[in-house]
Amino acid sequence: MRQEKIEKDHYYHIFNRGINSDVIFQTEDNKSYFLKLVEKHLMGKVDILAYCLMDNHFHFAIKIVKEESIATQAFSNLFNAYAKAYNKQQNRTGTLFERPYKRIRIQDEDYLKKLILYIHKNPENHNVINNFENYEFSSYKNYLDDSNSIIVTNKSYIINLFNDLENFKYTHSSDLSGFENLTGLNNDTTSNSTTIKSKFYQYIQDLQNTITSKLEAIDSKATFQEDIWKRPEGGGGRTRVIENGNVFEKGGVNISGVHGKLPESMQAYFKVGDVDFFACGLSLVLHPKNPMVPTVHANWRYFEMYDKQGEIIDSWFGGGQDLTPYYLFEEDAIHFHQICKTACDNHNPEFYPKYKARCDEYFYNAHRNEGRGIGGLFFDYCKTSETMTMESWYDFVTEVGDSFLEAYTPIVEKRKDLSYTEAQRNWQEIRRGRYVEFNLVHDKGTLFGLKTNGRIESILMSLPPHVQWVYDHQPETGSEEEKLIEVLKTPKNWI
Known about the structure:
The chain has 495 residues and is of the alpha+beta class. The chain has two domains: 11-172, 2-Layer Sandwich (Alpha-Beta Plaits), CATH 3.30.70; 195-489, oxygen-dependent coproporphyrinogen oxidase (3-Layer(aba) Sandwich), CATH 3.40.1500. It is built from 14 helices and 13 strands. It has helices spanning 28-41, 68-90, 109-125, 155-161, 165-172, 192-219, 264-270, 330-345, 351-362, 390-415, 422-441, 444-451, 456-459, 480-489; strands at residues 11-17, 46-53, 57-64, 102-105, 225-230, 235-243, 248-261, 276-288, 295-306, 312-324, 364-365, 370-371, 375-382. α1 runs antiparallel to α2 and α6 (192-219) runs parallel beside α10 (390-415).
């Protein structure tokens, strides 16, 4: 492994192990003594962001605050002082640590956040302890209390990276794989899929925060209620629901990451045998109060399946975003589709017409012979091909996700204060009934959630609070309501 140059004001992952993977900390007293030496030799030369001491190796996330020569000498003094004391105690001679010690420059905050998780979860990943939160020789507990420690200098900076302490704890306890080995200390390397998995899960966490903050600002009354949940079979999620606001009557922006044995019903669906799976994604549905503002749905997800040896046998991305108006404003439809097309065109000019057609086909109530809405994008089973790597798909899916607010919120801002009648509100609730029908009869996401023991409240969050089913209701001839129905019967090219 090429050794990074130590430079002032840069962040690094510092790690090493005993020579020939030998034990370097025989007792808890050894670990305590090592930390005292860290404080003696490193403090003032480097800032400690996170640490974990294992029996035969250690990890530190640090920031260099002094010149290269001073910081380098400080590490040398630390390792020499500990090796000398340890050798004397254990009546041994010779080199204790592998040389040179390993260091990786941290290039961005996304990697730093992953590293913090990796370091703190190390004892659990190595099966040293069942719950990493109870491990005494890592910095995790230092973040949860006000005690003075070697991480105190940058404690608030790290908490802010995760937005707040609650999200810091949630991210650590999400029970997701993907942080098993950033260093190669287990004689293997981090696979590309693991990188994709952890990158995408971090992405949807950040996107959830961005979207909910923007929607709260638009509503100006209601805020999102947060509910963190765990799935008994593995994984969990963070549900955020908004209700009874000035703009949004009900809505949810949810993330989840679940894993475990794929249920038999889903094995039959995917035409596979007894396999394990991992799935994560963000799903949102917003039901505005004003019938002039359309309902919107979006979902971006990643899926993996594994054999009994833990090898990936399949992986793919999926997702999309679509609009369900109650009254048709063609300029809004054009705007929404243009944003979708722009996101697609940045990756492949064939994507928009292809995924727009799939959206029209998928979000279709066949039993009613009409579309659920005016479409947008729908894509699934986006796998490695001759033209697209998983990294390429990651870039595409995240660009679509990033485009959501630009596609939807200008429409909300334009229509949310328009006047409406009781009859128009009744029409909205009748059309919401068709939305419910699709979600309960046809939607694959609802099916997957129910058959994998997902959280019912999160799965059915998409259902609106007020709905009507009126027997054989038909809109008046020539009305705005009939205009919408005619468009829903025959998908239209908006751009």
